Amino acid sequence: MKLSLLTAFCGLALFTAAHAAPPTPAAAPGLTSGTVLIGQSIVLTGPASEVGASYFKGQQLAIAEANAKGGVHGRKIELESIDDGYDPKRAEENTRKLIEEKQVFALFGHTGTGAVMAAQAIAEKAGVPMIAPLSGSDGLREKPAGNLFFLRASYADEMEKIVEHQATLGIGKIALLYQDDAFGKSSRRSFEEAMARHKLTPVVMLAVNPQSMEVAPAIAEIGRDKPMAVVLGTTGKLSAALVKGMYQANLRPQIFGLSVLSPALLRAELQNNIGGIVMTQIVPSPWNAKHSIVRQYRAALGDKIGEAHHASLEGYIAGRVLVEALRRAGKDLT
């Protein structure tokens, strides 16, 4: 969906005040005459933090950019961020705190499928908007919630492109390694559905515990089955551990990963040994300045241009969507 369409959608559907007898700004949680308080539970520490931290940096760029120009209708945006370490239980606790204690106006940029699932029920019951979560889970999209607004493509979209690409090339022996949590299970489902559409049968599908990082059994199974390609439904350091394990076992299948499989993390963990890895992306390249949004993102980075990252660009776009939705809604937010 184009940015202009999404911002219009968010602005009209989420924030537009009622025409008759609009409440004063103080009537809504998280609002003062000079600020609007937005909350998030986000992954800033732990083995899955690389993407979450980059997403957060991009959000901060967009919000700082807006605040430097006076905010939105005279209000500065305050972002209350609480780290959950990729733990859904902590994310649930954080969400309750943000809504019940901090009285945030909206939730923005929750990170990880498990965290979003844990937080969504709480947010929906409280009537709090939940905007641009970092999750492509199809389970969250099946029963659309009135308060939940996605920015990113779904994992089904990404898996379809991965499997379609392999089918076009005649690669039929495909395996899946996925992490044993809500995100991994969502990835598995999307993979199975995409394979069925292309009349392909997986060689093997193996779950790996993202906490223990015990990859040896999965690597051994891949060695026995010898697939032509391995799709990773994993994120963070688990992805790097699996790739490293395959390479150390002299296994060189074509490796495919979702957009949450960070190129920057793989480079850091694998150094120059990253050949043969393909991953989907749901935003333009942060190094391709032909896109207006990329030029604006790079300008916002300024002398930190070396920190350019796909997840950071996604966070910047998400922040711009939030700012634009608030702007289009007018001064009297509900």
Folded structure, characterized:
There is one protein chain. With 334 residues, the chain is an alpha/beta fold. It has twelve helices and ten strands. Strands 2-1-3-4-5 form a five-stranded parallel beta sheet, with helices on both faces. Strand 6, helix 7 and strand 7 form a beta-alpha-beta unit. Helix 1 packs across helix 12 and helix 9 packs across helix 10. The two termini are 25 Å apart. The N terminus is likely disordered.
Order of strands side by side in the largest beta sheet? 2-1-3-4-5
Strand count:
10
Radius of gyration: 21 Å
Instruction: Work out the strand percent.
Output: 5-15%
Helical fraction equals 40-55%
Report the mean per-residue pLDDT as an integer.
90
Poorly predicted regions are 1-26
Number of helices: 12
The biggest beta sheet reads: 5 strands, parallel
Tell me the span between the first and last alpha carbons.
25 Å
Question: Which descriptor suits the 3D outline?
Answer: globular
Topology order in helix (H) and strand (E) letters = HEHEHEHEHEHEHEHEHEHEHH
Class of secondary structure makeup: alpha/beta
